[in-house]
Amino acid sequence: xxxxxxxxxxxxxxxxxxxxxxxxxxxxxxxxxxxxxxxxxxxxxxxxxxxxxxxxxxxxxxxxxxxxxxxxxxxxxxxxxxxxxxxxxxxxxxxxxxxxxxxxxxxxxxxxxxxxxxxxxxxxxxxxxxxxxxxxxxxxxxxxxxxxxxxxxxxxxxxxxxxxxxxxxxxxxxxxxxxxxxxxxxxxxxxxxxxxxxxxxxxxxxxxxxxxxxxxxxxxxxxxxxxxxxxxxxxxxx
Amino acid sequence: xxxxxxxxxxxxxxxxxxxxxxxxxxxxxxxxxxxxxxxxxxxxxxxxxxxxxxxxxxxxxxxxxxxxxxxxxxxxxxxxxxxxxxxxxxxxxxxxxxxxxxxxxxxxxxxxxxxxxxxxxxxxxxxxxxxxxxxxxxxxxxxxxxxxxxxxxxxxxxxxxxxxxxxxxxxxxxxxxxxxxxxxxxxxxxxxxxxxxxxxxxxxxxxxxxxxxxxxxxxxxxxxxxxxxxxxxxxxxxxxxxxxxxxxxxxxxxxxxxxxxxxxxxxxxxxxxxxxxxxxxxxxxxxxxxxxxxxxxxxxxxxxxxxxxxxxxxxxxxxxxxxxxxxxxxxxxxxxxxxxxxxxxxxxxxxxxxxxxxxxxxxxxxxxxxxxxxxxxxxxxxxxxxxxxxxxxxxxxxxxxxxxxxxxxxxxxxx
Lengths: 238, 415
Hints:
Chain A has 238 residues and is of the alpha/beta class. Chain A has seven helices and ten strands. Chain B has two domains: 4-56 and 275-412, no CATH class; 64-269, no CATH class.
């Protein structure tokens, strides 16, 4: 299929640890198309984080084929990978990973700094992104002056500000209470419905059931790859 | 390609880091502070030395030479020099009358270490110089106020005197010397002028003199038993060689030095001072460079150490930046800017410290008045550049380690 965003074929990733070879990923093949809403599921140690790192171009596979928008990732230099991460991928982490000394606005401006956007445009776009996640009044707050949910919103705004092809969220609700977790899930739902591609890494069924497609990973392999027949669209406190 | 935004970001991070760790930053930069302090103080001293040398040479006149029995630089066989015959006034006059290439040439008679009296006050250690009126054409005869004596006053052995700056300042601090009288060699002289300040560190004795007409001088001190100096002003530096050659030949023939024999007189030029100062310069450089290098080595080690700490502390931050698209070169630059800024702050501290030290030193130590009371501007630039180079040297290894971090590993790091 020519419209695929991500195409991976028989990729494996091994690590050397204390003289032993660890097979984090053994044989994974999958395609991801624009405007998909995918949940990558699996217990800890299944290899889903390794897969996410490879999808996000933070890491490269030991073997197999990975093409991103038709470009061979294995052929790319470190600088090329940095550029893909900068322009094409928006990361949202479990621990938010905001810079503690920078304001919300500065945190959001960061990826734009690395893509060489002028300072006026940077500020303009960062403000817009912050307003889009409902934090227009928290621009000059530092992360420690924000609640967990607000911090994750800042992180989402930072992921979105470069208008990436894919939003990669690694356990985005893992450090949040149920209520704020739901708020973040609503945000992802909105992003998807606006046409964004969202990949969600989680081990929680409750979170995964919002996705349209669920890929289960176990022991470094794809265990199942199914369309979610009835995705949850309502958000209720249990 | 390095982008302006990234550079600004690097500076922002560097100064945030400095502010967040004020004490640590300060202690870290101490080595650099000391190193830059040496650079500035050394440069300041050498600068002053050069300026003093230049003004001394200029005041003596770069195109002026003195024909003396003695050599200024010493170094010759003392016994041999002692055996030289005095240059008599007649020889000096004959020389001056025959001299063709020089602009001015004139005899000078000196009386060293004498005393002058003014209304009961006595100053010791004064030189009395007897010269003809044409002395006013030499740089050494430049008048500050009043006038030089005239040909008439010279020929008629008038008791008039022109004071050196030091004497005038000691006796008449208000500057009202003209018209007053002073006792030289027991006789009363009218003060008609004061010479400009010529003394510098090396030559402050030149201000402690009084000038009288040479005919008067011989009347007071006698003509015999002293060696006369001949001052020769070439007119321009280009004519020096020509004038020197004529002077040598002329003096040899006047003093009957047989061909092939060594001269029994010396031609002293202002260049001699430069040679003497060069030794002092080299010593200052040697000590200064040694201390500077030593403190920079200590400084570089200190900064490198703290930069390694900084890289470790911020491993997670590096991971975050890389995940957002920072290239290795951006991270490298970030840490280089940080260590260079650290050193620049050190230079700033050193500069402030030196400014205070220099201002106080010049005020408290009168002998230091040949030095500028401020840090010479070109030294600020040199200090800034040196500190940035030191910062880059100290920061390069930690910065390379930071830029080579694996993003996945770095993101996983928990401090």
